[in-house]
Specification:
This protein is an alpha/beta fold and about 425 residues long. It is built from 14 helices and 18 strands. The chain has helices at about 30-40, 80-95, 110-125, 135-145, 160-170, 180-190, 215-225, 245-250, 285, 290, 300-310, 320-335, 355-370, 400-415; strands at about 5-10, 15, 50-55, 60, 65-70, 125-130, 150-155, 170-175, 195-200, 205, 210, 225-230, 260, 270-275, 350-355, 370-375, 375, 385-390. The strands form 5 sheets. The chain has a 7-stranded mixed sheet with strand order 6-14-13-12-9-7-8, with helices on both faces. Helix 4 (about 135-145) packs parallel to helix 5 (about 160-170). It is globular, with a radius of gyration of 23 Å. Bound molecules: pyridoxal-5'-phosphate. Pyridoxal-5'-phosphate (PLP) binds near residues 159, 161, 264 and 272. Pyridoxal-5'-phosphate binds near residues 133, 134, 206 and 231.
């Protein structure tokens, strides 16, 4: 084994001692210490849970115990849909396990085209590009569209993939206060009128589950000559008349230039996409590095995605059931005395605010013992340094399960002392 104090010199190619060179892991020491302190209390690692068996979109076996899933973003419960599964199996048999290639080389199969057709039909838009993840869709579209002399104007609470898209590109980045229409306008006013501008918004912000005032924000962006991109990862399939998201619900979808989405939530598989009516949209396939320089999704994945998207186009009552369950859970948690991320339920995400990381982690574990899985979220992913227990409902949760969830929150909350 190499001595960690040794490094190779460029000229001799032999190890020499560089005693003062830091271990590149030193910067993670505060996190390593914080994690060690938490785990030394005997706490189950909240970021290392293994699901030994998944029985349905709402139930899994974790640590040998039957557990209700309330932190999966599997909003429409499509992961076990029989048609979706059959489509995946057929594609696996007919096209093999993977494409082994980029979309622009050997990685575009009939299934990728069909998946993009399904997205065009779902959103009623002319252009659709499927990426290998939603993360890569944001990375690719933002970094490619906004060039050196352009500006990206984004909400300060934007998802990491939006920030990383800015990081990969060369544009100037201007952030504004979360969901603050006036702050957005102020920033836009200060920018040179002749500069290219991309305003990046999210329909639902996933940490607190709040929706954006897109109606006002899109109008202001357009008035300042900006193009608008909306990430609808957490609204697809159940918000808006056709399930197209918050931009549709607020009547501004026709003024949005790009919608970004993911297959890893309502669609129930993995992958990402961008849809647009821009007449030159197709050129992005040749210049967008996170689209070009990576392998495309396996045939089974695009087949499951296309089938799922087409099924999500018709409302079978699942949308209303999901939103009704969200209202029930929100109201129930509020009356138990928990502090929530929004006053009223605005989406299928309900964030329970914890006083600190220690009690958040203890509460997460107490819920797991009760038989409930939620997401523990902490800084830097969360706004204002909050520790959150993020709950996301699924259209397959029954009313009885919501009742059980509330009883588990009550028992765990009392035991940990947060209510
Ligand atoms: C708002 C938002 N955008 C993009 C993504 C990335 O999606 P994917 O899981 O497909 O990479 C996520 C995932 O958490 C998200 O919450």
């Amino acid at each position: 084994m190499t001595d960690p104090g040794l490094a190779m010199t460029a000229d001799a190619g032999r190890p020499s001692v560089r005693g003062s060179a830091p271990d590149l892991f030193d910067k993670f020491q505060p996190l390593i210490d914080q994690r060690a302190a938490l785990l030394s209390t005997g706490l189950t690692d909240p970021f290392n849970l293994v699901m030994e068996k998944v029985e349905s979109p709402t139930v899994a076996i974790c640590n040998g115990k039957r557990t209700i899933l309330l932190g999966t973003y599997n909003y429409m419960g499509m992961t076990f849909d029989p048609d979706v599964i059959a489509a995946g199996k057929q594609a696996l048999d007919e096209f093999g396990s993977g494409t082994t290639g980029s979309r622009v080389l050997n990685g575009t199969y009939q299934g990728h085209r069909e998946c993009e057709d399904a997205l065009r039909d779902f959103y009623g838009m002319n252009g659709a590009m499927v990426f290998s993840t939603g993360y890569q869709a944001n990375l690719g579209i933002i970094s490619t569209l906004a060039g050196k002399d352009d500006y990206v104007i984004l909400d300060i609470d934007s998802h990491a993939s939006i920030y990383d898209g800015c990081g990969l590109g060369n544009a100037q980045i201007v952030a504004f206060r979360h969901n603050d229409v006036e702050a957005l306008e102020k920033r836009l006013k200060r920018l040179p009128a002749e500069a290219g501008k991309l305003v990046v918004l999210e329909g639902v912000y996933s940490m607190l589950g709040d929706t954006a005032p897109l109606k006002e924000m899109v109008a202001i962006s357009k008035a300042h000559g900006a193009m608008v991109l909306v990430d609808e990862a957490h609204s697809m399939g159940f918000i808006g008349e056709h399930g197209r998201g918050v931009a549709e619900a607020q009547g501004v979808i026709d003024h949005v230039d790009f919608i970004i989405g993911t297959f890893s939530k309502s669609v129930g598989t993995v992958g990402g996409f961008c849809v647009s009516n821009h007449p030159k949209f197709e050129i992005l396939r040749l210049v967008c590095r996170p689209y070009v320089f990576t392998a495309s999704l396996p045939p089974s994945v695009v087949a499951t995605a296309a089938t799922s998207i087409r099924k999500l186009m018709s409302d079978t009552g699942k949308r209303e059931h999901l939103l009704a369950n969200s209202r029930r859970l929100h109201g129930g948690l509020k009356s138990l005395g928990f502090q929530l991320g929004t006053e009223e339920p605005q989406s299928a995400i309900i964030a329970v605010i914890m006083p600190d990381l220690e009690r958040g982690a203890a509460m997460w574990e107490a819920l797991l013992h009760e038989g409930l899985y939620v997401n523990l979220a902490r800084p830097p992913a969360t706004p204002q340094g909050m520790t959150l227990l993020r709950c996301s409902l699924c259209a397959e949760h029954s009313e009885a399960q919501v009742g059980d969830i509330l009883a588990m929150f009550e028992a765990a909350g009392k035991r940990v002392g947060v209510i």
